[in-house]
């Protein structure tokens, strides 16, 4: 059974810039512009430089479309909104990284103590 996306189309692993432009009903040049201006738009590229968009990329582009085309945000305003959205994720990851570092350090201390203190 084929997977279906939100529009009922067969889900694919990758979409071309032409397909994404058709899905969003915008010119391919707009997608290239957003890619240049917005760090969150970063499709994979083939060795030949052909853009390969994933379903996740399309979801991000739908959000950008809503912010720019429907809500009237500038590209700079959209960039700020997207960065703010990622801030909690970044803070969470930073906290996790610190916790893993502390855990690693504590495990090292435990190992050293095990060497010094004989087991009873």
TrEMBL record:
Family annotation (Gene3D superfamilies): 1.10.1660.10
InterPro entries, alphabetized: DNA-bd_dom_put_sf, MerR-type_HTH_dom, MerR_fam
Domain HTH merR-type: 14-84
DNA-binding as UniProt keyword: yes
Keywords: DNA-binding
Signal peptide annotation: none
Source organism superkingdom: Bacteria
One family name in Pfam for this protein: MerR_1
Record-linked PANTHER family: BLL5018 PROTEIN, REDOX-CYCLING DRUG-SENSING TRANSCRIPTIONAL ACTIVATOR SOXR
Protein name: MerR family transcriptional regulator
Source species of the chain: Candidatus Barnesiella excrementipullorum
The organism's taxonomic lineage, starting at the top: Bacteria, Pseudomonadati, Bacteroidota, Bacteroidia, Bacteroidales
């Amino acid at each position: 059974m084929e997977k279906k996306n939100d529009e009922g189309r067969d889900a694919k692993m990758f979409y071309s810039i032409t397909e994404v432009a058709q899905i969003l009903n915008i010119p391919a040049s707009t997608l290239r512009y957003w890619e240049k201006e917005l760090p969150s738009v970063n499709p994979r590229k083939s060795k030949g430089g052909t853009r390969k968009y994933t379903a996740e990329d399309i979801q991000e582009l739908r959000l950008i479309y809503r912010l720019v085309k429907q809500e009237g945000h500038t590209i700079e305003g959209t960039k700020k909104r997207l960065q703010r959205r990622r801030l909690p994720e970044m803070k969470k990851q930073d906290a996790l990284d610190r916790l893993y570092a502390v855990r690693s350090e504590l495990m090292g201390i435990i190992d050293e103590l095990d060497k010094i203190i004989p087991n009873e």
